[in-house]
Design brief:
The protein is mainly α. The chain has one domain. It has 5 helices and no strands. Helix 2 packs parallel to helix 4 and helix 2 packs antiparallel against helix 5. It is globular.
C-alpha cells in the first residue's frame, strides 16, 4: 500500500525525536485540555501499547468496525487526527483495567526505554496483534503509535 510509505511513523528517527521533545514538556502538573487522563496516568497509557506490541502484556483485540479492513483503513490511513473520545481497549483504559501512574520519573523512563526497544526490535520480530486494530504490520504499528502519541500530546497541549 503506497500510503504506508508517506505516513508519519514513530519508527522514523526524526518523527520519533519530535515526539520525544513533546514528551519532555510533560510534567506531573500538566493539565489535559479534554478527557479524563491526567499527566501521571498518561505515561502508562502510552507505554502499554508498546508492551502489547512486544508481547509483554496481553490484550486480546476487541472485534469491532476497527478490526475490519475498511475500519482499519479509515482510522489508520484516512483520518489525519484521531478525535476526542476515540475508542480505548479496556486493558489500556484507566477507568477499566488500565494501569495508573505510580512514579512519574520511573514511568517516563519505562516509556522511553520501551520506545527504544520497539524501534530496535522492529526488523527482528513481528509485533503482536494490536488491541483495537487486530493484525497489522510492524510498519503500521509505527504509524498507529505515531497517531496515538499525537492524539494525546494534543490532548495535553504539548
Amino acid at each position: 500500500m503506497i500510503l504506508i510509505y508517506v505516513m508519519k511513523t514513530l519508527l522514523d528517527k526524526r518523527q520519533r525525536n519530535k515526539h520525544l521533545k513533546r514528551l519532555r514538556k510533560l510534567t506531573p502538573e500538566t493539565k489535559p485540555l479534554w478527557g479524563e487522563l491526567n499527566a501521571a496516568n498518561l505515561l502508562p497509557h502510552l507505554t502499554d501499547p508498546f508492551r502489547i506490541a512486544l508481547g509483554k502484556m496481553e490484550a486480546i483485540p476487541v472485534k469491532s468496525f476497527f478490526t475490519t479492513g475498511i475500519g482499519k483503513f479509515i482510522a489508520i490511513y484516512l483520518m489525519p487526527k484521531w478525535p476526542k473520545g476515540a475508542p480505548t481497549h479496556p486493558k489500556t483504559n484507566i477507568n477499566i483495567q488500565g494501569r495508573k501512574g505510580v512514579n512519574f520519573e520511573q514511568d517516563m523512563k519505562e516509556l522511553t526505554d520501551l520506545i527504544d526497544k520497539f524501534v530496535l526490535l522492529n526488523s527482528k520480530v513481528t509485533y503482536h496483534d494490536h488491541p483495537i486494530f487486530g493484525k497489522i504490520s510492524n510498519k503500521t504499528w509505527g504509524i498507529v503509535m505515531n497517531k496515538h502519541f499525537d492524539h494525546h500530546f494534543r490532548q495535553f497541549g504539548l
